[in-house]
Amino acid sequence: MRQIKNYMESNIQFIPFNSPTNKGWDEAWELYQNSFPYKEIRSLEDHLQAMKDPRFAAEGIWLDDKLIGIFYYWRWRNEFYYGEHLAIIPELRNANMGSKVLTQFCAKIKGVILEIDPPIDDISKRRKVFYERLGFVANPQEYLHPSFREPFLTHQLVLMSYPALLTNDEIREFADFIREVVLRYSEHRNPTLPKL
User: Fold this and answer.
1) What is residue 10's DSSP assignment?
2) How far is CA 99 from the centre of its chain?
3) What pLDDT sits at residue 10?
4) pLDDT for residue 195 is more than 80
5) CA geometry: angle at 187 spanning 183 and 192, to 5°?
6) Cβ distance 175 to 127 under 8 Å?
């Protein structure tokens, strides 16, 4: 417990990954693969291609020279960021570290968009409440997202935005951005979703 307390009192650093030779890359890649369903993660080849896109950031979350998480996100328009993947190492997942990371990130920018599973069970309901406590709001529009990997199974998600709801036009533009830019770095060749 003392170790977790020390982490909470330390400053979080977001350090970009530029290549697999960067410090912490192997631990970050393992955390990425173990924290999300197969359909929601890129192949290594697609991930490396995405890292060449200036709109994409793959960052390690560091505390006192220890990698404690990853945050992969996209710049969408000038004022919004799309948080694609956020994961904290298992030993710190109940230490409010995710809250601290998102609070620090949101304080620096105008708007953030995240995708979550629909709140239909205890875990997904708690996740929605977690984001709401941080100032995110759930957008009511139906949103379907295709998987990154074959087989291409569509899954329903909820768009959470900070600090306010998105307009219908913004959601349509965001869906276009996912389809036309983000899914370019996946196993899709001609994605047709998401579309609103």
Assistant:
1) S
2) 13
3) 59
4) no
5) 50
6) no
| Average pLDDT of the residues of the chain | 91
Contact status, residue 188 vs residue 149, Cβ threshold 8 Å = no
Q: Is 73 helix (H, G, I), strand (E, B) or coil?
A: strand
From the centroid of its chain, how far is CA 185? 15
In degrees and rounded to multiples of 5, residue 194 shows phi and psi of -75, 150
- Strands 56-63, 13-16: pairing kind: antiparallel
Query: Per the structure block, which two tokens stand in for 107?
Result: 């304080």
Burial 72-96 (b: 16+ CB within 10 A, else e): bbbebeeebbbbbbbbbbeebeebe
Note whether 36 and 18 are within 8 A (CB).
no
The pLDDT value given to residue 196: 67
Q: What is the share, in percent, of the chain residues with pLDDT greater than 90?
A: 78
Tokens 């948080």 correspond to what residue? 83
According to DSSP, the residues that pair with 57 across neighbouring strands are 73
Q: Which tokens in the block code for residue 83? A: 């948080």
Q: Can you give the length of the chain in residues?
A: 196
Contacting residues for 133 by C-beta, under 8 A, at least 6 apart:
99
- Report pLDDT for 189: 83
Q: How far is Cα 87 from Cα 41, in angstroms, rounded to an integer?
A: 12
At 120, the amino acid letter reads I
